[in-house]
Amino acid sequence: GRPKGVAVTHGNVASLAADHVWRGGNHTRVLMHSPTAFDASTYEMWVPLLSGGQVVVAPAGELDPEALVRTVREHGVTSAFFTAALFNLLVERDPAALAGMREVLA
Fold first, then answer.
1. Distance (Å, whole) CA 47 – CA 37
2. Whose CA is closest to 82, among 17, 7, 63?
3. Is the per-residue pLDDT at 57 higher than 90?
4. Is the distance from CB of 49 to CB of 73 less than 8 angstroms?
5. CB atoms near residue 104 (< 10 Å)
6. Please, which residues bridge with residue 78 across strands?
7. pLDDT tens profile 11-53
8. At 67, phi and psi to the nearest 5?
9. Which has fewest Cβ within 10 Å: 2, 12, 20, 29?
10. Where are the beta strands (DSSP E) in 1-106?
């Protein structure tokens, strides 16, 4: 199909990151694994950075489910965004894969 353009302004990103729903400690160590062209990356990068948290960057290269789960566990990730398909894959392989996280967005 024909590509579509989506314009996200700096103000949109700032508003997203400033939203009160991210406060309370659940989003202090957020996993960043989405491509920067994917709008979920704005959550992964700016929510923790603009609220005093940390971005946990997934290892470079192609990620397999085991590498993602290992990164989450080793770095104490408190929250992450996964597509529904990736979430399903992670928990089908290991039902306790995300047990240490406080919040998972899918």
1. 17
2. 63
3. yes
4. no
5. 17
6. none
7. 998 999 999 999 999 999 999 999 888 888 999 999 999 889 9
8. -65, -40
9. 2
10. 29-32, 54-57, 79-81, 103-105
In contact, 42 and 48? CB cutoff 8 Å: no
Q: Which two three-digit tokens encode residue 32? A: 């960043």
Quickly state the pLDDT bin for 63 (edges 50, 70, 90): confident
Q: How many CA atoms lie within 13 A of 51 on its CB side?
A: 25
Alpha carbon distance 43, 41 (integer Å): 5
Quick: pLDDT tens for 66-83: 999 999 999 999 999 999
- Where do we find the tokens 């306790």? 96
User: What domains are defined for the chain?
Assistant: 10-105 (3.40.50.980)
- Structure pTM? 0.87
